[in-house]
Design a protein that fits this description.
13 helices, Peroxisomal Thiolase, Chain A, domain 1, about 400 residues, alpha/beta
């Protein structure tokens, strides 16, 4: 999408919500989480499913999802590149709306990620099965651990470890302020982090995201339709996306991710700088993902993220608001998480977050006015970056 098509307030997010229950919900299917989240987001916007004419999802076919929801869309998008997909869908919804393909876009996600856990038989013809699985590269914790160990080699094990601990502890503090968070009632100290069990070195358990049952949905529409919606619009100012590998063994650099391109592009298209950003929402599949994304987005240089987050800078009361819901590490993570980043960003910008509400850096009397949201998918493979604004 041409850069000139962004930086204007003509397309907005007007509704966001999660499914009714999150955590361990064994009596509900993935599609039920889709449906509850979609219903709640439409209620949040003051719209009905009959208003929806654009359908966006990943993980499930839009055929199955739309049928379950009772929606017949004029436009459908099943882009599926991991947990970043739902952030990418925002830009795709903007493009579809501007092209006249649809007017009210529903982005929905639902996954019984915990209740339906089980080893899925692998396709032996896939490259990962042929070239990685025989060597023990069999899933995200191991793949991300490989990348993180390289970062430690390049930039120092002790300082990287401390940076990871800072992220884990600060994110848990945000979850302790969020009643919907799975880890709401479970505080964590630095000692708790360092003494926790190993998963795949160098990851302790708190370095890894949760596995939960949950869903989330986002409604995107025109400025004209937004005027009649229930709540103030949150505008989509800029967006970008990209991916540079599938298998972790093919990642160009284990210490640099494609956010280095999608981040600057989205900010340029939005016409903002880092100093304008009040809230940063980063997909935290692992603590390492956060460190690498902060560098990719340009908040600090390569290898500098551990110092950037030092001293609980990203915790409640710090000067860099990050993952204020408790993130995938401590709030929820059903298997793909990008939709939940958008839900929290919009709620913060509306001032709906209660004890964890943050304020604008430029005007502390205001809620966050500019937020950047970055989703990551696959094995550090794909990113979608979106810049949101109020006013």
């Amino acid at each position: 999408m041409a850069s000139g098509s962004f930086g204007q307030r003509d397309i907005a997010i007007v509704g966001v919500a999660e499914s009714d229950e999150m955590g361990t919900v064994p009596n509900k299917s993935s599609l039920q989480h889709h449906a509850e989240a979609a219903h709640n987001a439409l209620e949040d916007a003051g719209l009905s499913k009959n208003d929806v004419d654009g359908m966006f999802t990943a993980g499930f076919s839009t055929l199955a999802t739309a049928e379950y929801l009772g929606i017949q869309p004029n436009f459908t998008d099943n882009t599926s590149v991991g947990g970043s997909s739902f952030v990418i869908h925002v830009a795709h919804a903007v493009a579809a709306i501007r092209a006249g393909y649809c007017e009210v876009a529903l982005i929905t996600h639902g996954q019984a990620g915990r209740s339906t856990r089980g080893r899925v038989p692998g396709d032996p013809n896939l490259p990962t099965a042929q070239y990685e699985a025989p060597y023990g590269m069999i899933g995200p914790p191991i793949n991300y651990a490989l990348a993180c160990s390289r970062y430690m080699h390049e930039y120092g094990e002790d300082r990287t470890r401390q940076g990871m601990a800072e992220i884990a502890v600060s994110t848990r503090k945000w979850a302790n302020l969020n009643q919907k968070a799975v880890m709401h009632d479970t505080p964590m100290s630095f000692d708790d982090y360092h003494n926790s069990r190993w998963v795949a070195w160098p990851f302790h358990l708190p370095d890894c995201c949760l596995v939960t049952d949950s869903g989330a949905s986002i409604i995107v529409t025109t400025a004209e339709r937004a005027r009649s919606c229930r709540k103030a619009p949150v505008w989509v100012l800029g967006a970008a996306e990209g991916h540079d590998h599938n298998m972790i063994s093919q990642m160009p650099s284990l210490t640099s991710m494609i956010a280095r391109e999608s981040g600057p592009k989205s900010m340029e298209r939005a016409g903002i700088s880092h100093n304008d950003i009040d809230l940063t929402m980063i997909y935290d599949s692992f603590t390492y993902t956060v460190l690498l994304t902060l560098e990719g987005l340009g908040f600090c240089g390569p290898g500098e993220a551990p110092e950037f987050v030092a001293g609980q800078r990203t915790a409640p009361g710090g000067d860099f608001a990050l993952n204020t819901s408790g993130g995938g590490l401590s709030y929820t993570h059903p298997g793909m998480y990008g939709s939940f980043l958008l839900v929290e960003a919009v709620r913060q910008m509306r001032g709906e977050c209660g004890d964890r509400q943050v304020k604008s850096k430029r005007d502390p009397s205001q809620n966050p006015q500019v937020s950047i949201v970055n989703g990551t998918g696959g094995s550090l493979s794909s990113t979608g970056t979106v810049v949101l604004a109020t006013g």
